[in-house]
């Protein structure tokens, strides 16, 4: 007996070895659509189109296969994640957009990658359907427009509605449907330049009967259940375009803090126009109060200034518009400059020469600006030697000049420029200028030791230029070495004390800075300038910043740390440490990297190694975590039906996984299995011992039993080595009846989006489509396909093949059931299970092709003859097919639809079932019961031996 079980164990290992081949697989992708779709065109014009109504929920599910489990990312159109996605949706299998908007239509891509081969990408086009309320506008022919519509006038009624798909229009006059040619006085046409999106009704030479109620009906033919929309317009001899009156001045000049009220009224127009206010530069201020035609702006500020327009519209002719400008009084930014005698080449002020004092102020409105001059606090009037002028505002707006001719000693003193606005309410601005024997032009120098200035990155630095002279001018700072902005983003920065302060200086700010005198608040002479050099030191930038190295004992490790950039770059040293213990240190030579070698790794060698590369500015650090911790296991998701029922109230689950990089660390001696019911706190743990080395790609299995139906469980798997516990992996195990390997019965009516775990064959030409008659569009192929599901419900779902273009004759679509395991009645003998396979089919249309049913056993790669087949038009009704099957091993059923010679060839199936035992009545259209394929007896023997082994162990 021990020999028998020994042989069985060897056979088990052999079969597992065969089964494990190809466990690692590159990703594949398929996009499933759920949510609230109103129509799905499968492979229409070589692409899949998913149609949804605006405001409903878009839900796309990306079904992937491959091992390790692929990472999923959703993108839109240009290949980058749209900012309209919910963040949690971009990297999930299901992309969900609630209340979708029209601009969110487009092509969506699902990208899956797991590091094996090329990423898998599938796309689907989302078409958002909508229909806005139509609008009717009325116009007279050019040259004939008057205030009212009189006889012998030609009138155009234009109907517009935004929609997707393109809208169709129809017109009614009262209850009469208007069509081209139905009335000689009416023309209906769609102008070329609008590409059919508008419908224009032309009334030629208005007649008394043309004064009536006109209705425009906009329709998208009830696609997505969008109803028609209608707008009514009454045309009469009083119909007129709007006219308005603006009961305010233009412009309106106010002081800050005042309340402004703008009043607009209609003076004509039929129907009554609607009034609105708009602002020229954008939206109305948030504090605005709008009451029909009255706009109130409380406590205005300079930001509220601008052009405000009242617009009246009644869809007759062009909207009426009148505007006014709000000007908010303001005085700001007073400056002065002194100009020495322009007729002599001298920058100094001298007795007997001329000197000019200029004063400039920014004023709103500029025409209200007034200047006055004081000398030593007393009013100064213009005279032959003291000439006061206000320059042309087009040349130098807001500027006044005081010319002192033949300067005398008695002219020394303090001159004050006073600026005010005529309307008052704004504080005056006064600027003092002192003229004396000590008034001299500026001189600019850089203090000793302030250039070059060396700073560390992140510090606050002050660049300084000393300016002498009286009065001291404003200093302008700019970059001297390149055309780049200053730290505040401008090209020039002003300084009143000659100091440029830079907070948190960065390496990009290294360079030359120019300081120069401005004419403002100083002499209007040739600018003085100086250069300050700034050098910003920064610590080394290194790579890698962090690396985890997993390695088993007695092996060698090489760690390398490289300098990318640093300043200063020539004074560098390195220090290698394990924790706080110094291992080695030295100076850099000509190389830009350093390495540390660990030979014959021991347990005490595990830990975090750091390499600090140091210069005057600081240190850059490479970190290496050397550990013997095992990599996490990777759960295998692509197993067919790993879940089965073994007793009425409990179920079991075949847990499968591979080990990531098992040979990188010491041998894995066991796994710690933790399991807890979803929503519970307590974990139940046990160890799964492992004998021998785990090979890369080896599929490991463990049966979870006594799981309570229909609860979900959280499973945690942790590898254990001599080093200790490795990284854990967690997955959720869910109960998913009725798919069970030990088959008793199976039934699917395709009502759920998951379609009972049916799958589309990857080797066919196109896919089966899940649909119902309520939403299926039959306008393209009206004489084929079912008008309801098998039960007669238009809401019920079924699967069918769409044979419209681009499908061609002979192309095949194959749909596969889940794989079912067959339990032998005799553990040591052959199986003799019998099942009844049943389904309903609908084959209506003059171009119907062929429907085949196949039995495919596990391990079978090629198809033999179909066990059931039927071709040609069977009429507009559902029929049932039943056939006995006798599988000898795990099996699945395949339904194959073959496209006929034309587009009227849709084949549908519904209510697929598999029941234990033979069919009660002789199955119709049954060619034969499928015999085991070649080589099936080998699998039969293997399965029998394995089942015997597992039965003995229990």
Automatic annotation (TrEMBL):
Keywords: Cell membrane, Disulfide bond, Glycoprotein, GPI-anchor, Immunoglobulin domain, Lipoprotein, Membrane, Repeat, Signal. Residues 27-127, 134-219, 242-325, 340-436, 442-533, 540-627 form the Ig-like domain. InterPro entries: Cell_Adh-Cytoskel_Orgn, ConA-like_dom_sf, FN3_dom, FN3_sf, Ig-like_dom, Ig-like_dom_sf, Ig-like_fold, Ig_I-set. It comes from the Eukaryota. The keyword Lipoprotein applies. Coiled coil: none annotated. PANTHER family: CONTACTIN 5 (PTHR45080), MAM DOMAIN-CONTAINING GLYCOSYLPHOSPHATIDYLINOSITOL ANCHOR 2 (PTHR45080:SF35). This is MAM domain containing glycosylphosphatidylinositol anchor 2.
